Amino acid sequence: MATENPQTEEVPEAVIEGDAPSSAEIFFEKNRRAILAALLLGLIAVFAGIAFKSTREKKAAAAAMAFSTAESIADYDAVSRDYQGSIPGGNALLLKADVESKEKKITEAQATLTSFITSYPDHPRFYQGVFALGALAQAAGKDDEAKRYYQQVIDGEQSADLSPLALTRLGDIAYANGDYENARGIYSSVMPKYPGNPFFYKVQQKLNRLNLVSPPQAATKPVAIPAPPTAPPAAPKETAPSPEEAAAPEAPAPPEKPAETPKVPAEAAPAKE
Fold it and tell me: How many angstroms separate the CA atoms of 54 and 270, rounded?
């Protein structure tokens, strides 16, 4: 009798772990459109940035070229107008003010410099414009206004090149007003505050000239010198008589007054015999 083989059950094959979709794949499938859109926008931003940078560089190069070929006030006006906000545009205003100053157009130069420091507060040559305004005010005899501009340069964080010169100008104002001690103090402070500055020799010359005009006073107190003791007056010397005095007869002595005879009282007189 044949024995029947027991029917074997089919065992399902084990699921391979790598065949299951990862969480990243699941996320990508769900957000495919949003991710592709973000990538596209990123590429557009990158290309736009490159194009903007290229355009800006071309504009800066054109501004620099226009500035380098400018020679007159009209040329500087065109550069500052066409390239407003750029470094060459600010440089054009500075050179325009310089030309106006040389042509004795002081009011126009002041207006140009004021426009520069108002429109270009972050310009690398900002304090040059401030210093120029101080120089114009000093030349016009407006000492208080000039001192304000020079002090602004001294206090500036990015004005190291002009600060020693501005401090020297404050000394010049004091010297011109006859305040020699203040001028000497300002000149003497330039080197300690700004060692190695290129204006050292000029400052030293000003100090030497100041010492010729007004030598520095000694700081020591004057020592009191006691007065010498007074000697007693000398007795007059006897002088020998002159020949005329010796030949002259001596004056007679005044007659002596006779002595008065004492009166005898009658009672004391002797009786007659």
Answer: 169
